[in-house]
Each structure stands twice: as C-alpha cells, then as structure tokens.
Amino acid sequence: MNKISVLFGFLMIFFAILAFSETVVTVGVFSWDVPIFQQIAEEFEKENPDIKIEIVEIPWTPGDIINSLLTAKAASGEKFPDVIAQSWEPIVYPVSQGWVYPLDEFIKNDPDYNYVPESIQNAFKFLGKTYALGERLHFNTIVLNLDLLEKLNLPVPSYDWDINTFMYLARRATNREYSGIDNLWEFDAYMAAVFSDRTTFWSFDFNKKRFDLINGGWLKAVEIQEKLRKIPGLDASMLFNQQLRDQGELDDYQKKFGEDTDAFFEGKILMGFKGTWDWDEEGLKSLPWKMDMYPLPHDHEIGMRQPIHINYAFMTSTTKHPKEAFKFLKYITYDPKGVVVKFKYVTSVTDAIGNSFWFVPATMHPEVVKEFKEAKFIPNGVKYMLENLDKTVQVDMWKVIPGWFQAINDVMIPTEEKIRSGDAEPTAIAAETEEKLNEIIEQAWNEFIKQVEEVQKNFSKLRKKIESEK
Predict the structure, then answer these.
(1) Domain boundaries, the chain
(2) Transmembrane stretches, by residue range (predicted)?
(3) pLDDT digits over 386-398, tens only?
C-alpha cells in the first residue's frame, strides 16, 4: 500500500467520523424565506461546524400556517421541526398542546438576553416559563408627509412628540384641498396602550389579564378620536361612501380629492395611521414624496410608550437536540452576530424596482443597533424607535391571550359601532362592556392555564422519553 492510499484512507476515516459526530437540527421556514435562511444556516455552520442545519420548507396555506402544520404532524405522528423560525399566530394553542419547549434553562444568565427589552422578554411567558423569543418586530407608526408639511408652512415635530402636537398638525393641515390623516380606525385601540402605563391594546391589563376600559387609556383615546372626527374633512376615510359609489355618484372623498385618486399616495393627506408592515404591503417604500415614520404621539404625563407587534420563534418540545437547536434559535433572534447576519441577507433582497426589504430586530444590542442605523433605506424615525425599544408595549394580544378574538368580535367591535353611530356614549357603556369582555377572557384563560399546568407537569416525563430514544 503506497503513501497516497494510506493518506486517502485516513481522510475517509476522518470525514466519516466528522459526519457521524455532526448534529442535525431541522428548522421550519416559510417557503418565501427559504433562500435567506439557507444563507443564514451556512453562516451559522461556519461558526458551529458540529451542527448541521436542515431547512424544512413550510408552504403557504390559508389561515394559521404554523399551527395547522403542527396539528397535522401531531395527528399523523410525523416529527416536528426542531425550530420554528417565525410565526405571528396565536402561540397559546401549541403551548396548550405541549408542543413548545420552555427556554428558561438556556436564557438564564445569558448576558446577550439582557439587551432584549422586558416587553419582549415577558411577551410569551406562561406560569413563569418562557415559550418563545421575539424574532422581529413591527411598530404602529404615523407616516408624515414632510413635503406637505413644508408646503403648508408647518413645523417639523420631534420624534418625542405628544398628542397635542399631533392634533395641532392634523387640524392645521385640514382644508378644502388637504386632510390631516388618512384614517383613525382603531386609533382608540392602539392609543389606549399609549395613554396608560398599565394597559395595552383596547385597555387590556396584561398583568391582570383583564380589560380596564374605565381606568385604562381607552376612554381618553375614544374622546380624542371622536374630537378629531368631528372636524370636517380631517379624517379622510370618513369622506368615503361606498353606497354612493355603487349608485354611480361621487362621494365627498372623490369631490375633494378627485374621482380616481389615492389621496394619501398622491400627497394630499399630511399623515397616515400605518404600521411598519405597510412598508411592503401598502407600498410606503414607493411613495413619491419625502416621508418619515414617527412613533405614536405620547401623553405628556405618561411619557413614550411605543406599541409593538412581536413575531416570534420557538423550539418544539420533541427535539432530540435541545442545546444545539437553541443555539440556532438564539442565532436568529437575539444573538448579535446572528441577527446582524440575518439583517445582511434580508436587506440584500430587493423588489422589482430595487428597494431593499428589512425588518426590525428584537434586541437593543449595540452591534445590532449600529447595523440598523447605518441602513440608508430605513426611515430615520424607525431607527429612533429601535433605539427606544425599552419604551415599548406589546399590543398583539391575540397571540398570547386565549379568547381574544371572541371578546373583540362579539363585544368590542359592536360597542365601537354604537359609539361611532352616536347610539351610545363611551362613558355610559364602558362598565357593561368591560364586564362582558372579562367574562369571556376569564373563562378562556382559566381553561388555558389548566392545560398549561398539565403540560408543565408532564414535560420532564416527555423529555426523559425523548432522551431515551436517542
């Protein structure tokens, strides 16, 4: 046997041992994100050569994509992916089924986790256990037309603006030609989180798991909403009348702005009540006028409270490699190196006209903030919001509160319709509405907590079984 053959034999043995020692972690990723996550996985594997990331494509389906996938796999006995890379669906369902791995043993004493604000750390905790990590965020914002502001000779507000400045600008911008804001739908719901230091969306007290319409921020938010709507033409959406359009007549919106006009896009409305998700969904990145995205205006007595929506990632309870799976889960959520890598690959993708995609990270780590601030295509106001991520309040309660949709659809929305039509005064029906809402939430929450107690009780038994199958 010559030396080359011996060397070749040693190499074959070496690579066989290396392949055998490699741990495979499966990661469920939406089909449209697969190319990006393949690149992220390659970077991760360079830093962690003993871990192989296998991307599992999750195709789009109507309704809840992730929860439907997990339900189908549980019913068929198929293995879950070790990690779910992103979800925006109600997490209470998979948690109640025992499909989610609590993460506290991994995040405890991790210095990188200190850069994740409390509003995000506490978002997915149930009975003291953390079941998911923030993967990316969305802000509720006010999109401000800076060109129109200059044209109307109005001052440019600071990002730390208050509700009085907002109302002043909305009123001053409203005349025969222009309107102050595109719409005020759900203004009361989101501003209820801004006007109280205890309550969130629609004055829900997250700590007590109860609505507090009377003492929370909702009554003040409704009062301001109605005050603004009473100014003719200020809320452009109030000029819209589908019934007249169906009859072939012009409504007030068309009479003011033009028959086939998108008044906001064409620069005839000073402000837009939007979210960062609208950058892509409603084409904010393609607006023909100079704009910026502002945080929602705060109450001077309360201070800044930025409403955020938290998309999350989690580890499934049946993973055979929890330590390795968590390494990748951390990499895509709050590990500064990993989040910077993810940001690099997400922003390298552009639309048909060259606009970069981007996301808001769920960490305030200086390395991440620096990378975010250097991106020229992100509005400066959003950069300001990331720098003030410690002043945020979670508002996407439907992800973490069972019974939420029933309470809102059956009670809150009919109540708001009565207020808008003038059939009821907010102060007169707040107590009754609050009672009905809390009755639904209390029943759903108590049932959910019973399920979680059972899940937590059986978790160690489940893990012992899985460990024995390795």
Answers:
(1) 21-137+309-390+449-468
(2) none
(3) 999 999 999 999 9
